[in-house]
Design goal:
Strands 8, 10, 11, 12, 16 and 17 form a 6-stranded mixed sheet that branches. The protein has a 3-stranded antiparallel sheet with strand order 7-9-15, with no helix packed on it. With about 625 residues, it is α+β, with helices and mostly antiparallel strands. A hairpin with a 2-residue loop joins β10 (about 360-370) and β11. The chain has 2 domains: about 10-205 and about 225-315, no CATH class; about 320-535, no CATH class. Helix content is about 15%, strand content about 15%. The termini are far apart. The protein is built from 14 helices and 17 strands.
Amino acid sequence: MTTLPRPWAVTFVLGAVGLAALWVTAGSSRPAQASPTESLQNPLTLDFQCSGCHQFANNPLAEDLPPHAPAAYFGTLMANAARDPVFWAGVALASDDYPGETEDCVRCHAPRAFLEGRGDAIAMDELIPPDFNSVSCEVCHRAIDDGVTPPGNARFVLDDTLVDGEPARRGPWGYVDPEGPPLPPHPIIQDLEFLPSSRMCGTCHDVTTGRARLDDQGAPIGVNFNEQRTYSEWLGSVYAQPGDEAQTCQDCHMALVEVPAAGCMEYENIGEFAESGARRHLMLGANMQALRVIADNSPGANGNAIDVALGLFDEFLATAATLEVQFPAAVDLQAGIDALDVRVTNNTGHKLPTGYSEGRVMWLEVTARYAGEIVWSSGLWDGAEIEQDSQLRSYEGVAQRWADGTRNHLLLNDHWVHDTRIPPKGLVQDIQTDPVGDRYAPLPDDTWPHYDDHSYAFGPVSVVDVTPDDASDDELELELRLLYVINTQSYLDQLRDDNDVNDAGQAVHDMYMDDGGPAPMVLSTAAVTVPLTGLEQPDPGDGDGDGDPGDGDGDGDGDPGDGDGDGDPAGMTSESGGEAAGGNDDGGGCGCAVGGAGGPLTLGVGSLLLLLGVRRRRR
């Protein structure tokens, strides 16, 4: 590996160096206090003070790689958690449902506010500017495992002891050469155990509410409601076990920098790089739209850092899942497709999707197109919601209050209606993380499958050949996409409509509409073009494709004069023309009509494919 000249003899110790070799004293490594931190004698450092040293350009070895300076963190949702308008809209509902129980929400999204006595805030304007540092640098870099406090519900334990007048920051490196470059301007403790562990992430990424969890009959099952279990999902998976497949949360979301790098500007400038140990603080996930909305509506957000993160999302999302499809070698429209088999494999270390479940859904979209128009489909997105059909395959966790079926009120939830999210590989059976419903069955080793198998069937359909004299273009384009939307239109509507506390619901609704409304992300795609047979020949006659002479309107409906294809006289309109949606009795989710009173599906030369007799679903 090429390295730059090292003008100083300092070394970064990345392996088995003990605390006695560190700059700080061994006794300062674990403070005497235990149990979650409720307040601090020594407040959290403001993030802009950290960025003064931890924001810099990549060194020449990494100039074509994503940024590795820790300040890239300012483009993450963690760094903007207190600015998230969806969060505050949810807090408003929760505070109305159970006043006084939203402190854990603030504890996680705005730790400084909680630690300084503002944990009862239920609106963004109740915070002070420093609170918007959100999950600030020191929330992680002063965090310790006290050996007592369990993970979850933001029960962080922060080191509040002083070393040379200020709290030490924990990181991957130790500094042991007194003849080397100047030491960092604050005390350092090397942490090779807690900081780089998934247990560290589990501090916030398991959430339990105060409601007793109920079974399908409304009886308590002996645990409180498991609102989020991202950490526990990892803990029960193969990735938490020693072996070749072991991976931490950081291995995916804070990937190691591929080349030697430093953690601060001074060392970066003098070319004094550690061989390994630097991690990217990009913390990529899936919530691209939230970052866009925050950048557009929060003056304090770091728009440049967010733009950098947004440019990396597509590549990251493509690692989440794999689509395997048994495509047919050819398709006869007169026979249909009797089996289109699909496997979706979860490549992540947690359920897919995971975390906060309200408003979130992943699903399969299937389209079969001839001449650019849809012949069959399932799971189409109508611009705001998923169009429902009998073959729709979706992945989501749906919770409710069992007594009355109220949904999307976090603190009311006490019952899982279903949880069809795909488990991670090797997930052991546990009531806290088990799927809910009959989608999955345990494997012979008593773990849950980390994949989902589904099969589509589409019945015969009549489609007119648009180029009857040229068989070379008789092809069907088949495509499957795994799509994911974080906030559906109906969820944004509910955040607005159910809010009797403040204007947070209206505000978030307006922000997302200004961003173009809910926008699905593509996680994976599989596509093929196959030969197509069974096309109908156009009817002879007047050239309009309807078999009737002389009407001259060119719409294929047999009606004179209006030219709009709806079967109504001139000047009338109808919803039935040209849309491909819904299903039929023999195709189950098929996106077209089969024959019917309107005759075969017709494409006149230069005209659009018309689905006769099918009315688009309106939501």
